[in-house]
Amino acid sequence: MTFTAHVFEPLMSVASNAGVRFVSLNRRDYPRSTPLTPDDNRILSSGTDKEKGTFLRARGVELGRFIDRFIHQQNLPAPPNGAQGIAGGVALLGWSLGATFIFSALANVDALPSQSQARLSQHLRALIMYEPPTVALGSPRPPQLWSPLIDTNLPEKERVPALLPWLTVYFNHGDLSTRDTDVLSYYVPGLSRVPTIYNMSEQERARVVWTESSDKSEMLFMFFFEPQINATYKRACYDRSVRDKFPLLKMWNIMAEHSSPHGIPSFWTMEQDNKEHGGGFVDFKVVSGGNHLMQWDEPDILFKACIERF
Q: What pTM value is reported for the model?
């Protein structure tokens, strides 16, 4: 949330130099993407559970259709003979709240035509989650978790502007190996590096930052769709009937050690969920030195972490 597809420009440049095509999409309610309809907005604010499930399913289906159409129209090669570790195939990267929608694309692949399902089965090699927060999994938030966006002590007009530096800070957390939410830093930024937002020029911020949805459709989705999001996440990651459709697929959750605290508890949650389902569904990696916007500050490091997942 809050950032457009342009935030991936440095990472796209690194990928292009390495011979990897990188396509970055804006979700609904972001610039140059299809707006949400009046009925969509009604569902976000006051829809029934069934309507909310249908809404999330529709977002996954439209994403799946785009991926399939892109593969077909661009004549993207599948890995030869289904082999691993060589050219060909497609990876999906879901950053922050965006991970929810790649979960939905995978969980609802059965809504696509059989030919599309077959094409995705042959091409999809990796699903990479880069710091999905707890709301992207539909899992409970730690009681200590704080964000300017939900702090009612802040004047309403200042919450979204305050969110930008907070999301891009380099936090100095305690010992993350303890898996204890009390060791996380929630408020005070570290002093080792400038927050990413201050590394952007005025022109870059104009392309990269989009706050119109942050306290409107995004907030409604995050806080009113928890059961639907959680069911979609678990179906995509741990349901054998889904995973068996993608024999090449590997799933990874990538976390940066100095990131804002909203993504770290969900990393631990997913580790536990993976264990409870027998293990082997999702792999995990912690990247040293990074924050929530490595795609801007450290694109080489993030690209390496992603490409190693193939």
A: 0.95
